[in-house]
Structure formats: structure tokens, C-alpha cells
């Protein structure tokens, strides 16, 4: 028997009026558990609980908030043995990825924002002499800018890293004194539901963290539209993000939107053997890291024509060397996609590219295995830079290789999509790469690496989103600035 979860509202499990829906293991196509179908009444109850808890939690001493988040990190780590298999089963991520990056990264984020809770929230401003006016008498005026909590934050998250993504939102929001209502992605919400009682055990007051779920868009839409939510933090597709932004705008709610991406990895003509090897390994992460289900993935590789054939050969060999299979097998590198619908969508892009004359040098055909929602590592060459496969987010293990002749052409192709989340430049001359980065309309640029820095501001431009989080920037994202002025 698989577990049937309730909604986590006001510190206790609430039976859903609309019943449950199955959460399916993408590798076995069997139920992992049953998630509750949230209704508008459940959303209203969660908002009431969060609003009631806000008054006390927002006034809690920062050191006390820090202690709660620290305990949450410890409890999460202690429960790895039971939580890692759950996360792995509902996401379809490989066991290696789940054990090393899904749960540990979530714990690290709790620890980081435990420290963030005690970061200074006041920016002192130098006193200014002000002349007398009809408004007030003159004098020396002092001032400060102080970060205050926003209020009730709706955190709506994506399916690729459910727990990591949610903690990345909830931890800085709670650190700043906000209360949270989480709405995980419908495909894999179970580990997020488990976070409710864990935070309660860590000492978080009832109502400060709530989790509602649903198999469709209705629950999230009700949460965004509810007048009791003050901010919406969303990670997911651009299409859904636009609808959320429109609804939130009617209530003038603060939004933080981390949306789609179509990352370009530009390999310049001066790339030596070492730099080219780095580029191949970096682009190969599209296949080897959660089957390409990551918005920052370098899914387009733009290679100077003098190196193009060499890069394509290396990438083809790389793709063919990766083991596709059962994600709980330690030899597996590429597991399934999250659902049959996503697999079919990815396959449709590959088939459309084939029909338009592109060449599939690796992958492209569904592996001969059942069950599971598998797509093999796929490399596409000969595609037009303006074609859908080269411009639209696919969110799967698919890379498009495009040649260029001049640096100007590379910049034009890189900037030609609607997205601007994460690009990469590979060059033997880091100074040249730095200068090129300034011409890319992208919120983030990696130079000779696809590694991340956890303290950088993270977010995109164009249709990749609005706002920045990460490091201390997340504390800014989940706070309002209040100016205080007084006579000196």
C-alpha cells in the first residue's frame, strides 16, 4: 500500500475534500504515493493560517529564526535514509544525483539561510543637511533603510528538484520573517509534504509553513489570486509564469519569477585542447545531469567552424558512452524524464528536426526498454539556428550544435531566443571571454565552466524571469525596504 498524504495546513494534516491522485515513479510507471487534491477552501485555510502566524513569526528574534532553520537542516540530514528513496522514486533522478545533490543541497540551503537570518537588515545612510521649506524646518536629517518581511509568500515550485527548489525559496523567506504557503509541482510533491512536520519538529510555529498540492492548475491559480498572499515566488515554464504574473499583477503582488532557458555554450576559435575538453564535458552535462531537466543547461553549443567537426565528434562519442537505465542502478547516468507527456514532447522536437533536414548524430530513438519514460542522450547537427529545436526550451537530454564564423555571429545566435537565463563562453583567453559575456543578454554567464557559485544573484532576463535570488540576494528578494527618517 502506498501512503496517502494530507494537506499540511496550520501545523497538522488536513484531509482533502477532493480526494487524492497518484504520484508515479517515472522509471517504473508505478505509484509512489497519493497526493491530496487541494480545493479553493484548502487554499483559503492555508492563507488564514499563514496570516495568523505572520504577526508572531515576523517579530521573532533573528537568532531564534536561525536556530529553527539550523535544526531543520540537521533533521533533514538525519532522515536521509527515508527521504532519499522517496525523492528518487518520485522524480526519477538517478540515485547518485538524489543522494549527493537533491537532499544534501536542501540541507545546505537551510544552513545558509540560518546564517542569513542574522545578517544585518539595516543600511545606515549619512545625515544630510536640509534647508527649511514650507514642509518643515531645516536641520540635519538622519536616515536608514531597513529590510522588512513582505508577508505571506506563495512558493510555487518545479518538478526537477522539488525539495531543493522549495527550500531555496522557503528558507530565505522564513529567515526574513515571512510565512510560507508551498505549492509543489503536481508530478512529485511528496517530499515537499514531508517538509511540513519536519519544520514543526524544528520549532517553526504552526501556520508559518503550509503545503497544498493538486494535480492541475486550479490549486496554484487559487493561491496566486487569493488577496491574502503578498508575494508569489515561482519556478517553472515561461508560459505558466506569464499567467501567474498577470494574475499577481491585478493585486500588485511582489513576484520573483525563475522561468525557462535555452543556454548557449559558445566555443571560440582560440579554444585549445584543454578548453575544448572542458566545453564538451560542460555541454555533456545536459545529458548526464538529470536527463537535461534543468533550466540552466547549455542545450545549444555554438562552435567556431574551425573546431566544429572536432567538437561534434567528441560530443557524439560522449553521448554514446552514457548508460541509460534504471536510476537506482549505480552504473546508470541517464534516467527517465518526469512523465510520458514530457517524453512525448521531447521526442516531438527531435522528430520535427529530423523532418526539417537536421542530422541526429547520437540518440534520437526511444530505447528498447519498458516501462519508463526514457529519451537517450541526443545530439542534433545541421539544424537551422531559427528552427524550434534551436530556439525553444525542450527540457530533456537534447543538444543542438551550431557552427559560426565570426564572434559577432555567435553573439547574434546566442541572443536570438526569447530566453536569457544562463550562457557559457569557452576560450583560452579568459579576458576575451569576460568581454564577450558583456554582450550576452543573459542573467548568468559561465566562463570555461558550468559550475555554479552559491552566493551569486541568480535569475534571468527577457522571458527567463524577473528578479534575483541566491546568497544574500535572496534575503533582499523576500523583503521590502522601509526608509526611516529622523532629525539629528
The number of distinct structural domains comes to 2
Number of strands: 20
Indicate the proportion of strand residues: 15-25%
What's the CATH architecture name of the largest domain?
3-Layer(aba) Sandwich
The gross shape turns out to be globular
Helix content: 25-40%
Query: Taking all residues together, what is the mean pLDDT?
Result: 97
Largest sheet strand order: 14-15-16-13-12-17-18
- Provide the CATH top-level class of the largest domain: Alpha Beta
Structural class: alpha/beta
Please work out how many helical segments DSSP would assign: 15
Distance between the termini: 69 Å
| Major beta sheet summary | 7 strands, mixed
Q: Features of this protein?
A:
20 strands; single chain; 488 residues; Aldehyde Dehydrogenase, Chain A, domain 2; seven-stranded mixed sheet; alpha/beta; six-stranded mixed sheet; 15 helices; Aldehyde dehydrogenase family protein; oxidoreductase activity, acting on the aldehyde or oxo group of donors, NAD or NADP as acceptor; 2 domains; oxidoreductase; Aldehyde Dehydrogenase, Chain A, domain 1; Ald_DH_N; Ald_DH/histidinol_DH
What does this protein structure show overall?
With 488 residues, this protein is an alpha/beta fold. The chain has two domains: 7-259 and 463-487, Aldehyde Dehydrogenase, Chain A, domain 1 (3-Layer(aba) Sandwich), CATH 3.40.605; 264-458, Aldehyde Dehydrogenase, Chain A, domain 2 (3-Layer(aba) Sandwich), CATH 3.40.309. The chain is built from 15 helices and 20 strands. It has helices spanning 40-57, 62-78, 80-91, 95-116, 162-175, 190-201, 218-225, 238-250, 273-288, 305-321, 340-355, 388-391, 407-414, 430-437, 471-477, and strands spanning 7-9, 12-14, 20-24, 31-36, 122-130, 139-149, 152-156, 179-183, 209-211, 231-235, 254-258, 264-267, 300-304, 359-362, 378-381, 398-404, 422-426, 444-447, 465-466, 479-487. The strands form five sheets. It has a seven-stranded mixed sheet, with helices on both faces. Strands 9-8-7-10-11-19 form a six-stranded mixed sheet, with helices on both faces. A three-stranded antiparallel sheet has the order 5-6-20. Helix 2 packs antiparallel against helix 4 and helix 3 packs across helix 4 (95-116). It is globular and about 70 Å long. Belongs to the aldehyde dehydrogenase family. Keywords: Oxidoreductase.
